[in-house]
Amino acid sequence: xxxxxxxxxxxxxxxCQKDDxxxxxxxxxxxxxxTAGGERYKRATIEFKFRDHVYKSTRRGGEFFLERQxxxxxxxxxxxxxxxxxxxxxxxxxxxxxxxxxxxxxSSINSVHYFAHLPYALNDRAxxxxxxxxxxxxxxxxxxxxxxxxxxxxxxxxxxxxxxxxHKDNYTIDYLAYKFLVxxxxxxxxxxxxxxxxxxxxFSDYRNYTIDDFTTRLRDLDELYEKGDLxxxxxxxxxxLSVQVxx
Length: 247
Description:
4 helices; 247 residues; 7-stranded antiparallel β-sheet; outer membrane lipoprotein receptor (LolB), chain A; alpha+beta; 14 strands
């Protein structure tokens, strides 16, 4: 009987390990989003300060409003990106903006909110996810998830490529990298620090590294990081001002 009990335990353990081995990129990203806040994102109003500007996101189920507020000598300029498009307000009055600038402003605002709210946006319809391999950084195990974007719904920077290192046990994004094409292109590798949970939603700051060789593969950046071959470019710090989650 003891032998049968032991055998059953081994079979169950092996089965669980096999199930874990079968995790897809989709499942890993979903678990990571759930760990970071899950459904709370859809009911949250988040206000934060980044590089002297105030940003605010409001989500009501499928609706979203992403804002940037700049205080100028002429008053308060408020840019808003929503399901219906982009608008600029000056002291609550709508301002006409050339179409060529609308895309630029909207892209900039989307980018700031995208990184501040990671990993929430990684399950959008336009996101392509691929589990490339597993690795170890500083003795910790990680999944490597490659992210690309479809042209339709992927935004102005849909050609950009991302890589996320997701902790295999904690399901947290501890490192990420991306290759972008605008302004002659570049590569960035970010190390998360000062991670904290506010009202059930996880936020992180980042040490931002770069490398001059644009041919470097994103998947190789973790090794270069551990060797000390990346250049520290800046720190990305977000001051969370308030988080409200509606029931």
